[in-house]
């Protein structure tokens, strides 16, 4: 029996184009035995198995086995070799991810980078506007004066422009309510912020002070001081040269004489009565000139003050009323004569007596509590 030892060697068909049927756009791959045709990435074999054709629009990759499914807004096209081609600012297999370009982007002064789908951009911060109209890519941000443009602020009283914005402030007597976004009145009386010593009256944007009966408002407009009121009848040696209707207190002649008399008495009395508030003539009648006056005095020792004032009035020799020299011939207080002679305490007693348990001290004419009266 004969045995034959045979040795077979593979034939590389791909080495000889005439031995394989792959077209020029296909790649021949040798196998043992035989060969096969393959395509480059981005194409696949047609039905003949020998010729390659480019991947259709919805697929890509090796043998076109990858689906494109590109984002409509973020991809420009589907490349048969690399797949979705992303527009600037996007990444990912399907261009589904936004690239935050602001991480590596620097904007100018008062500008900020805004991360947005696609290409990120610099823009002026709120409260600023770009004044570089020649180039949108090169910002020149300048503060907006919202106070100069009423449509840009909602202040109802005062607007203060600040760099990059504004704030609203209010007139005195108001505060800004950030919820209502307006100035509202401060009730100084309710919040105890007024300077009134007694009665506070709130007003829009302000307040006023009042006093209870027996007190008057001091010149500071806040403090109430105690007052004393006395009716004093004064007779002046004065000749009435013109007809005065004594029964008509609104007539011109009566009013002129009344005003001049009040001014004369006030000027003389305040030489010694620093606490005199006012002198009001309530009635006049002729003879010489008889005048009922209402003296309003503040302070704790008003009776002594009135006594000293009336004494000075009696002694005055430089009195002039409507260009006529006059003197005081008589004074009554509460219907009782006031006597010029006597000590200060005696004269004070004619105005107002000290209370029980008190004595008058000659120095100053004040009433002092007697200690023994307490036992």
Automatic annotation (TrEMBL):
The record ties this protein, via Gene3D superfamilies, to: Laminin, Tie2 ligand-binding domain superfamily
Question: Superkingdom of the source?
Answer: Eukaryota
Q: Which UniProt keywords apply?
A: Disulfide bond, EGF-like domain, Glycoprotein, Repeat, Signal
Q: Which InterPro entries match?
A: ECM_structural_protein, EGF, EGF-like_Ca-bd_dom, EGF-type_Asp/Asn_hydroxyl_site, EGF_Ca-bd_CS, Growth_fac_rcpt_cys_sf, NOTCH1_EGF-like
A Pfam match: EGF_CA
- The reply to whether Glycoprotein figures as a keyword in the UniProt entry is yes
SUPFAM superfamilies in the record: EGF/Laminin, Growth factor receptor domain
Task: Identify the PROSITE patterns for this entry.
Answer: ASX_HYDROXYL, EGF_2, EGF_3, EGF_CA
Domain spans labelled EGF-like:
10-53, 98-134, 185-225
Provide the GO MF annotations for this entry.
calcium ion binding
Asked whether the keyword Plastid is assigned, the reply is no
* The name this protein goes by in its record: EGF-like domain-containing protein
- Native species: Lymnaea stagnalis (Great pond snail)
């Amino acid at each position: 029996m004969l045995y034959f030892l045979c040795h077979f060697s593979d034939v590389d068909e791909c080495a000889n184009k005439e031995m394989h049927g792959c077209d020029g756009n296909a790649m021949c791959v040798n196998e043992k035995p035989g060969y096969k045709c393959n395509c480059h990435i981005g194409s696949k074999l047609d039905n003949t198995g020998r010729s390659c054709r480019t991947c259709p629009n919805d697929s890509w990759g090796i043998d076109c086995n990858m689906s494109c499914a590109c984002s409509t807004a973020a991809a420009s096209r589907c490349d048969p070799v690399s797949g979705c081609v992303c527009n600037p600012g996007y990444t990912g297999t399907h261009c589904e991810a936004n690239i935050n370009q602001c991480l590596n982007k620097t904007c100018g002064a008062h500008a900020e980078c805004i991360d947005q789908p696609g290409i990120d951009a610099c823009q002026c911060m709120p409260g600023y506007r770009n004044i570089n109209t020649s180039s949108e890519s090169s910002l020149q941000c300048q503060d907006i004066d919202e106070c100069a443009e009423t449509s840009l602020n909602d202040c109802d009283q005062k607007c203060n422009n600040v760099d990059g914005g504004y704030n609203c402030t209010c007139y005195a007597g108001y505060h800004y309510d950030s919820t209502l976004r307006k100035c509202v009145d401060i009730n100084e009386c309710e919040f105890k912020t007024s300077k009134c010593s007694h009665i506070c009256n709130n007003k829009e944007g302000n307040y006023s002070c009042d006093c209870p009966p027996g007190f008057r408002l001091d010149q500071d407009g806040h403090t109430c001081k105690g007052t004393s009121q006395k009716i004093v009848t004064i007779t002046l040696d004065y000749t009435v040269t013109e007809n005065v209707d004594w029964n008509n207190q609104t007539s011109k002649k009566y009013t002129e004489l009344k005003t001049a008399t009040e001014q004369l008495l006030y000027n003389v009395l305040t030489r010694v009565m620093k606490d005199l508030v006012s002198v009001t003539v309530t009635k006049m009648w002729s003879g010489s000139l008889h005048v009922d006056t209402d003296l309003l005095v503040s302070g704790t020792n008003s009776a002594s003050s009135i006594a000293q004032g009336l004494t000075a009035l009696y002694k005055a020799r430089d009195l002039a009323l409507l260009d006529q020299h006059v003197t005081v011939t008589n004074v009554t207080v509460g219907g009782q004569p006031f006597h010029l002679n006597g000590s200060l305490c005696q004269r004070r007693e004619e105005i107002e007596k000290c209370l029980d348990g008190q004595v008058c001290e000659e120095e100053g004419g004040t009433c002092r509590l007697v200690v023994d009266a307490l036992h």
